[in-house]
Backbone:
């Protein structure tokens, strides 16, 4: 039963994030394609006339952060056979980082440092988390391989983005490094629903 509950939360959390970003991007003050390619995700969460549904995007950040922490500590941790302490810490860093992003929006010089810190905690911490998880389960099967590939893609995208912050296509790299965690949450939800 615990697996079903955790699986359901992971699936709903990831779908809510994707749907909320899509709706927020639709109402953002730009063509939707340009919004995804030329505007960072955090821009959708800034209270401003450009993003009338900023509250929806911020709720998605908070919800996915809580989803990751709840799903992991409620059930997924039981599948971890090694590196437990490291994964506990990385899960908290990742989940709290996303919550910080949702609570403290970018674009404000007084608080942007905290927002950036939350983003790094979520993106870098989250993709390192995936790599460690892939090596910490009972056997290295298709799920573990998929988790490792997602983590590797996310880390690569993050580092390319880190050294190309001024690039006009930085938002594409950002989304690539964020979506790895969202896809993992969805797939993990399906994985847990089978138990």
Residues:
């Amino acid at each position: 039963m615990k697996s079903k509950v955790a699986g359901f939360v992971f699936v709903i959390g990831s779908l809510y994030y994707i749907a909320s970003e899509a709706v927020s991007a639709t109402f953002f003050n730009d063509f939707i394609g340009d919004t995804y390619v030329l505007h960072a995700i955090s821009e959708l969460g800034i209270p401003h006339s450009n993003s009338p549904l900023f509250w929806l995007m911020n709720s998605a950040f908070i919800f996915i952060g809580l989803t990751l922490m709840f799903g992991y500590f409620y059930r997924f941790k039981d599948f971890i056979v090694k590196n437990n302490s490291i994964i506990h810490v990385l899960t908290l860093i990742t989940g709290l980082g996303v919550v910080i992003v949702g609570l403290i929006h970018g674009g404000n010089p007084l608080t942007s440092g905290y927002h950036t810190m939350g983003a790094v905690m979520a993106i870098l911490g989250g993709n390192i988390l995936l790599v460690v998880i892939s090596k910490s389960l009972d056997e290295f099967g298709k799920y573990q391989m998929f988790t490792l590939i997602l983590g590797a893609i996310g880390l690569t995208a993050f580092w390319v983005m880190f050294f190309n912050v001024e690039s006009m296509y930085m938002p594409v790299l950002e989304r690539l490094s964020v979506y790895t965690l969202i896809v993992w949450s969805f797939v993990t939800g399906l994985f847990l629903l089978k138990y």
